[in-house]
Amino acid sequence: MPPRVVALGGGHGLAASLSALRRVTDRLTAVVTVADDGGSSGRLRQEFGVLPPGDLRKALAALCADDEWGRTWADVIQHRFRGDGPLRDHALGNLLIVGITELLGDQIAALDLMGRLLQARGRVLPMSTIPLDIQAEVAGLDPADPTALRTVRGQVAVATARGRVVSVSLVPEDPPACPEAVAAIRDADWVVLGPGSWFSSVLPHLLVPDLADAINTTRARRLVALNLAPQPGETADFSPENHLEALIAHAPQFHADVVLADPSTVGDAEALQSVVGALGARLVVAPVARDDGTPRHDPGRLATAYWRIFADLTEEPDTARRGGEQSIGGRTGSRWH
């Protein structure tokens, strides 16, 4: 039987992970950040007081099958209106999510109905039941004092910050977690964190108290999928180990079983292995990037990496899960080509 997998994140990173994971299992749940305040999502959030639907929509589209029905509906919900009127640049899927939510009076029921309409291969849930704001402490915004910290609020502002993001927090500080998301994590076989915008899409999941508790105490194994390149502004000049160091700083109780990296991203292998070890994890280096030179994941390659990791580790006894030898199937720092 395929594993029960929960994937955490938001935006294009989570969509890439879901496009791969749906090839591995049909018992898949996406838990999505709800802090977007820009574009169509920001406008709908401000006007209707709803959860920003954009990242939820992208997750649903990523879970559509590769058949004619799935491709057609993925295109439908991703379509953006043209013209110069009030609908300009709204995504049709965003409007559908908001409209169905108003009709049913229940945001989870609305997402489930959308999933059935699309015949999505998995379930999409928000990480919180209320819209959130990302708040960051950023250094380097003051030319007169590069070390001074300034507070930047809003996902768009954080993602495009020209300084160095030092830390992030949520507003409000203690938001309610989505109960269905907490239940899915506790019932999972694997929890996958990343890839994605590190400070504005990935780390926020570990800042929602009930969600973080579920992630830290679940019997599921935990996999961290690293990005293929730093993100301009948010994580400019970050190495893979810098991403993991930020994860440890924001969630010191978090431990992982596996950290997945593409060979092209590994510069200082010894430094990366050291930080991976601090997480209690083992490093798997596998080709998951596309061949076109862009920092984008190839769904087929990423699916292969996930499948091999799940297959190699699922049957291991619990005593080998933490602090054991750093190998997959006897291959230390495995590189699959």
Can you walk through the features of this model?
The chain is of the alpha/beta class. Among the domains are: 35-126, no CATH class; 133-171, no CATH class. The chain has helices at 11-21, 39-48, 54-62, 68-78, 92-104, 107-118, 155-159, 179-186, 198-202, 209-217, 240-250, 269-278, 299-314, and strands at residues 5-9, 28-32, 123-126, 133-139, 149-153, 164-171, 190-193, 221-225, 258-261, 282-285, 327-328, 331-332. Strands 3-2-1-7-8-9-10 form a 7-stranded parallel sheet, with helices on both faces. Strands 5-4-6 form a 3-stranded antiparallel sheet. β9 (258-261), α12 (269-278) and β10 (282-285) form a beta-alpha-beta unit. α1 (11-21) packs parallel to α3 (54-62), α1 packs across α13 and α5 (92-104) packs across α6. The longest helix has 16 residues, at 299-314. The protein is globular, with a radius of gyration of 19 Å. Mean pLDDT is 91; it is low at 317-337.
Fraction of residues in H or I helices: 25-40%
Radius of gyration over all CA atoms, rounded: 19 Å
Count of distinct strands: 12
Which residues sit in consecutive blocks of at least 5 with pLDDT less than 50? 317-337
Q: Please state the average pLDDT score.
A: 91
The structure class reads: alpha/beta
Largest sheet: 7 strands, parallel
Task: Specify the overall morphology.
Answer: globular
End-to-end span in angstroms? 27 Å
Subcellular location: Cytoplasm
Region (Disordered): 317-337
GO biological process, one term: regulation of cell shape
InterPro entries: CofD, CofD-like_dom_sf, Gluconeogen_factor
